[in-house]
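Continuing from yesterday's entry. The apo prediction looked reasonable, so today I'm repeating it with nicotinamide-adenine-dinucleotide included to see how the binding region is handled. Same sequence as before; SMILES copied from the compound registry.
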Amino acid sequence: MDLKKLFGYENKNVVITGAASGMSKSACELLLELGANVYAIDINPIDLPVKKSYQADLGKKEEIDRVIKDLPETIDALFLCHAIAGFKGKELEVELVNFFGQKYMTEELLPRITYHGSISFISSVGGFGYEQNYKTCLEVINIKDWDTAVNWYQNHPDIIANSYVFAKQCMNTYVTNKCMDNAFISRKIRINAICPGYTITGLSDDFNKSSSATGNAEEGKEMIENMFINGWNGYAAEPKDMGYPLVVLGSNICSYMSGECIYIDHGLTSSWKDKSLLN
Ligand SMILES: NC(=O)c1ccc[n+]([C@@H]2O[C@H](COP(=O)([O-])OP(=O)(O)OC[C@H]3O[C@@H](n4cnc5c(N)ncnc54)[C@H](O)[C@@H]3O)[C@@H](O)[C@H]2O)c1
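Holo prediction written out below.
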């Protein structure tokens, strides 16, 4: 069996964000190995031999528009992977970078996604339980333009106080809500997300700092490890533990899979579900 053919990325146009580091960089390396024409975007420089790279702040509409103008006319797979940690005082930026800008990019690029193409996000175990907040998330999802979204976020400070979690809940809601939307399903475009558990990446230090009320990285690290690792005598994932499954998800291997938010956390969220189902 020809493995490159099985994946189906050879000579196909793939757009991926956040590729300067972490999970997306791992995904990008595998996409290159599989023969894709990779167009990679990040706020930081990208040091991989991609077809074209762009440096842009994807939390800003004009920056997204600038990049979109230059991306290819047809895109076979789109991967939205970039994000920042949820620091207090940065709530609006977190929502725009981690969710609304990604929804905006998706919808602007949708006409260029090929028949049976794929759109894959990196969400998080942080979005676990999004079903409880589904209708609120849908309010954001149904907003069409950038300025209305900014107003909505500014008028709902309580909802975006837990900024990282809310953005990931919106992302999971988006996948669940849009998979059968005519704009996607009429051309059999698949839309999915992976929801990673605790992974050591370029974001780890910021996650640690933003998890502590005083910004103390050591204290934040202890809190995170207590929540995600210690309960199962576990260990942190590596970027490729997430980046490689993401590449599989966007590939022809998963040709009949859409609308899925897949937790990749060694079973942690299943154990949370198990506890709540038994109660
Ligand atoms: N690391 C974890 O434990 C963890 C857990 C769950 C989910 N995630 C998610 O995984 C994804 C990848 O993050 P990672 O952990 O590999 O971190 P990372 O910092 O290594 O990678 C994120 C990339 O996004 C880029 N980026 C940040 N803001 C940007 C902006 N405004 N415009 C363009 N690019 C921007 C960064 O420069 C970086 O290269 C993110 O969506 C994150 O929320 C991470």
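Comparison notes:
- The chain has twelve helices and seven strands.
- The beta strands are 13-17, 37-42, 52-55, 75-80, 113-122, 190-196, 261-264.
Will overlay with the apo model tomorrow.
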